[in-house]
Structure formats: C-alpha cells, structure tokens
Automatic annotation (TrEMBL):
Membrane topology summary: Multi-pass membrane protein
Position of the signal peptide: none
Species, as recorded: Sphingobium boeckii
Domain TonB-dependent receptor-like beta-barrel: 222-661
The protein's name: Iron complex outermembrane receptor protein
Keywords noted in UniProt: Cell outer membrane, Ion transport, Iron, Iron transport, Membrane, Receptor, TonB box, Transmembrane, Transmembrane beta strand, Transport
Subcellular location as annotated: Cell outer membrane
Any one Pfam family match given in the protein's UniProt record, by short name: Plug
Amino acid sequence: MVTARKQEETLQEVPLSVAAYDQELIERYDISDLSDIAKRTPNFTFSNNLGLFGGVPVVRGIGAPRTGGSASVGVFIDGIDTGNSSGINLQSFDVERIEVVRGPQSTLFGRGVLAGAINYVSRRPNLEKLEAEFSGEVAEHNLYRLEGRISGPVADGVAVSLAGQRRSFDGFYNNSFSGQDVGDSDSYSLIGGLRAKLGSENQGEVYLRLAYSKENIGQPAWHQVATNTQTGTLPNQRWYVGKLRGDSDLIAHNGDNYGQIDLEFYRAGLHFDYDFGGVTLASITSYNRAYQTQDTDIDFTRQPDIIAGTTLLGNFRSTLDVEIEDYSQELRLQSDNDGPLKWLVGGYYRKEDYRSLDFSPTAAQGSSSILAPTPNILTREIKTFGAFGSLSYEITDGLTLSQELRYSEDRISETSKPRAALVAGAFENKFTNVLPRTILEYQFSRDKMIYASVAKGNKPGGFNNSAGTGFSPVPDNLKAYNEEEMWVYEAGFKTSWLDRRLTLNASVFYIDWSDIQVNSQVIVGGFPVGITLNGGKARGTGFEAELRFQPDDHWDVYGGIGYSPIRILDYVDTRATNAGIKTDGKDQIAGTPDWTGNFGTIYSLPINDTATAFLQGDLNYRSTTYATEAGLAETGSKTTVDVQAGFKNGTVRAALYVNNLFDNRAIDSTRAYVNPSNYARTFIVQLPNPRQIGIRFSVKY
C-alpha cells in the first residue's frame, strides 16, 4: 500500500510514478539511508552536494542547485515536512514503508516538492501482540551500529513502542597533515510511539510519535583541485575542463582541534483520525526543533594563518550556530466509500523560524584559532498557508478523472546584521500560487492500467541576504530572487504478468521549468560574493522504467532505468564567461546526471524447513554530473557493485556484505570554489566511499 494521494492505494493502482519499499524490501535490500534508496530507484540520486547540513535529493534531474537553498524534493515523516534531509537517516530506521513519488506533489504535500517527495511511513505500535527485534552491523573502518525496538499493547486498544539506535564510524580517510580521522561520525537516536483506538467500534485512532537524535560528524573528506585551463593573468581567468579526480593525499586541513559538525533534532507528530461513516476527519500536528553547529576548515588545505592588513587570506575557519524551529497543522476531511465519487478538502499552516550566528574568525582576531567575539546574525521567518482539495470520479467502468487544486501562500521575512553594523537590514516578500493537477486513468484489469497527468509545482523565492553580505552593495535587482515554477506532463502504465511474477511499470514525462534558481557570483567591494539568480528556463523529456521478475520461488530479479536530460536555456554561467570560457547556453543542470540505472538479483536456497541461504548482487549506475551549468568540470560516470551472502529463518537473519566490490573511486560530487588566499578559481571534490566489508544481523521476536 502507498499513501501518495493522502489515501491508501496499492502501488499498481496509484496513477503516479512511485517507488515504494515495504518492510520486506527494506530488510532484503538492507536500506538504512537515502543513499541506499537512491541505488535502487531510477531518476533519483542523493548526494551531500558538498553541503554541511544534510544531503540533496535529486529527482528527474531536479534538486537544490544552491547549497543551503530551498529544497526541490520534500522529505516527510508520516506526511510531516521535515524541512530538509538533515538527520533523516537517524530517525528513519523505525519505518513501515518508504515512498519515493516523482513529479510535482504540490497539490497535496505543499511547499518544497517541485520535483517530488519522499515519505517515510513509521511503524505504529502493535495493538495485538508483543513484538521485539534487535539488529546490528560491524564493518571496516570501525563502523558499529546497533538498533532495537519493542512494541505491544499496554491496555485494551492502547499500545506503545520504543526504538533506539547507536552508530559510530571512524571514516574512510585521514588528514594527510596529521593522520587524524576525516568524515568520522558518532550518533544515537530514540523514537517513542503511543497508539490508541477511540470509540465503541474503534472508529477513531490517535497516534503520537516522539523522536530525538544527535550526531557528531568530523571534518568532511573534501579537498581542492587546481584548475587546468587558464585564459588570462587574472585569478578568476581559470577553469577546469575535463574529469576531476580525487586524491586522498590532498585531504589536509587545520581543523583537528575543532573540525566537526553537530546535529541535534527533536521531532513530534500527533495524528488523529476519526471515521464518521463515509467521511473521515484527519488531523496532523507537528513540532520540530533542530540545532546545527558547523565548525570546520573551509579552505580545505593546511595553509597557515595569512593576514594582509584587514583581510584574512589563509586558514579559513567557518563557525556557525543554527537553530530551526517549526510548527505545522493540517486538517483534512475526505470521503471514505467505494462509490464512483471520491473527494478531499483540507487546510494547512506552517511556521518556521530560523536563526544563525556566525562566529567565524577574521583578521581582527589575528588567528583562525580565535573566534570572533560578536557574531553575524541572520534570522528568517517563513509562514506557509495552504488550502487544497481533490475530486475523483469514475466516469465509466475503469475510467477515472481526478482533479486536484491547491492555493499556496508563503510569507518570508529576513533580517541580516553583520557584526560591525548597528542595525539590521530587513527583507520580506510574499509568494502566492495556484497549483493544479489533473489525472486521467484507465484500469483495464486489476493487473493493468494506464494514466496521463498534468501537474504544476513551485518553489518559493528568497533573498541574497547572508549575514556577511547583508549590507554589501549588491545591486537592488539582485537582492531578491523569484520563485520557480514547473509544469510536468506525464503518461505511464503499470502492469503485472505471469500470475504477478512479472511486474513492469514505466512513465514518460516532459518538464517545462521556469525561473530556475542557480548559483552565480558578483564582485562586491573587490571581493567575489556568491548569490542566487533566476537563470531562465529549462526543458527536458525523459522516462523511467522498473521491473521485477520472479522466475521461481527461489529467484528474484529486479532493476530500473531512468533518463532525465534536463537542459537549462538562455542562461550563461558568468563565472565561466569571466574566465574566458564560452558555453552554448543549453547546459545540463549542475550536480544532476542524465542517466541512472540499477540491476539486482537474489537467489535463495532452502537449507531445511525453516532456514534459507541467499546470495545477492546489486549494480548501480549514474552518468556524469557537472560542477556548474558551464558543463566543463565533471565527475565522470560511476558504476558500483554491492554483493552479500547470508542466511535467514523466521527470527534470525545474518549476512556478509561487500559494498563497492570493485573499489570504484570516481568522485561523488564537485562544486566550483574560490581559493580564499588569492580569490583564484578552484574546484572542490567529495571523495567516494571505497570498498567496505561488513556483517549485518537481526533477531526478531
């Protein structure tokens, strides 16, 4: 079952492009984070994109082009917007199902779902019986992970659950300057649930989920790569042309005593559902609070302190404290019957408060080891209002027309107060939109259907208003950027064959995307300042197809392929043109591949009446991605193979695995960068996970 349209439907019945993983598949594929999902989902990739506060999901070539910008793919837990993907892996192990919905989902999910949505459906406490489970993992580079869960009834119609996770990892690489670990992490999380049935006939239910997680991450495994093309004598007249390569010997930094990222999350969700007989009332109330601290070396070199007058030119240290708090409320009233007419109406409100304090050292401190006594301060308030509804009618037997509509309003206000300023600069704007989706579907039989849809999505705009540049003379026309809009036209089919041993689903889509938010740069007071611009339009026609085949009871074959060649039009990367590099104005979106694909197989061999041995192999492919829309500096394509062998019975499962069997060392991502010491163009790269051998096990009661 999936709930991509706020109602329970089978995967083969829902007229959307959806990849879903239930508990059986999560265990079979050993899914523990968004990267594992991306390995098995066409047209979906996940990378931290060289961003410190969480990764960037990319669906159909659309993600978040600017690090720290608003998301284009929403991440939800039980339909509750998490704000971003930070910390999601620590609070997603206790899940019933994971759904990846491709295409704009704005009509029912709201903001931040321009390209798609990822919804984690949590495991509710068991009202019928006591259940317990324990699992763990041990792998190279001192990776240790332990998880446990217990759930069961405590009274008639009342049940509770408690789950916990502990994980530590030394990282794959070391600081070549000092030998200390790079990319190491240590984390733990707790999740509690309370579930109660209401009414004489159990027609109502209340579910409360509370979650807490904390993680410490070491200095990331990134390094600078010098340019290989120079068109002039100026520092910015340089570029890199060709495939960038990572080198672990170039990982060097000065952050051994401070290089770390601390993440702490509190999440609460309260769900109430009541069936009045043909009509159901649903309420979702949420509260989230996040504390995020970054204290890292951001020139990614061992360069010592270099001070020229009032300017710090070496050993750059970034120290940023961020607090994010949000509250949301959703109310829905929807039909609950088997008739030809189905409807839904609802309202939504969300308020988010963001505050960051930047204590990064400057030349005034005389050393990067001394933090600034007064911070740059940036605050942001976002209020989101939404009213939405859907109407679905079965015109004739098997032919159904659905119309969805949402009115969305985002009110965004920001203040920026650099440490030297006496007063804060203030910016505010309101973005409104009407977001429709129309779906026509025809169900030939229980096992075969076709559909076509037209949907509109949006992503709100914002301000070029970082605390360090809020008072810099950025031209007025660049201080704000507009929201993005997208129309997606899609058609697809879902089929099952051979007594449902073969499942084949596919969809084709055309994307019309306008006012794209892209990275750019302006010179302010002689210094380069990164900003966001609306970069024009993009177009693309693509497809995705997924297959699962079970030739017999022991053999399972699965795979998928995705193609999303999204090209930005009428936009030229000024960073490249300033370097003397010419582009054709039709360029691939930065950080997104054209092709993705996966193939896997599992073969099971019975040992006795209760135990089975299994052998599994998975291949994952993505085509090259580029550092910028100039399309010159690239990661190169990447293919990885994961294998595992193990056994399982009714209660125990154990497996020996090898990830990245052939030790492919192609870099994961790259980004254009400016060397702080001389403002010359460079690039930074994220080193990949090398081959890793480990053991996973689980015990269920």
